[in-house]
């Protein structure tokens, strides 16, 4: 981000981040700073003509095809997924869903919003009892456990790069007497599966990927002839970009999304060599903004229990700094997805089918109308 700014702005930005690390800045100032940075990002994303915009997108697509499926997998894992599970129990909803939720009304609670989005996945992925399902990038098993209980005759394979997540999911399966779940811990670059499945579902895992051509080709080999892939991914409506560390003050990329990608809403549709698009939905970004605001509320409400966890994870001398980072992270996500009435950064859903097969698009539903 700093590469986009003049030197005086860079100096002011560094000073601001130093103050932020002390955890004394009022949220109002932090939010104003985030909105200003988001404005700078928007200025960099939009080109002066549609022709230039398309050329930039084409260059980005071609560059992805030259990359590994994922980069910095160890760093991404450590930044989010090896933080103790009890931290997330204090911040997330009852399902430990560490991704955008869906709020049908202003009175919807975080727990209800988790359930609403999980139900939406089941509908849009056309899940049915008795299917074999892969939850790729399963997190703490919010979807895995939801599907395992809702469809008891199905068999779910949860895949994560985190040993911490695997231990939690297996413990939950024992506690809930679920015998239709298995968990695999693997780096997606190296993962090979000989079986084939009815569905592969991936929730906010593709943001950590680069070469979607290779990734979708690999997933296609896991699908039965009539198999389908459902993807939930956060996106910008027009322009993709990488999370890059330009300096120490570029804390979002450095501490939370090393090696990550912000796809555009249409990006995955350019990688259909092995899978064909069946349906494509957009979920307004305000749902993610509200999700993150709810996480921030729970973080603040449970700060007395959270501080020792941060000290244990990052070191006692870094506790204050990481308290500030996590709060700023939740604020940044909320502000980013709320801008322009939630129509700038949003959540994209896709349903793909394996090449050489055909299927009907799922029927529209009231719950699925996300405007």
UniProtKB/TrEMBL annotation:
Gene3D superfamilies found in the cross-reference section: Vaccinia Virus protein VP39 (3.40.50.150)
Pfam families tied to this protein: CMAS
InterPro entries referenced in this protein's UniProt entry, alphabetically: SAM-dependent_MTases_sf (IPR029063)
Superkingdom assignment: Eukaryota
Family indicated by similarity: Belongs to the CFA/CMAS family.
Designated name of the protein: Methyltransferase domain-containing protein
Organism: Chara braunii (Braun's stonewort)
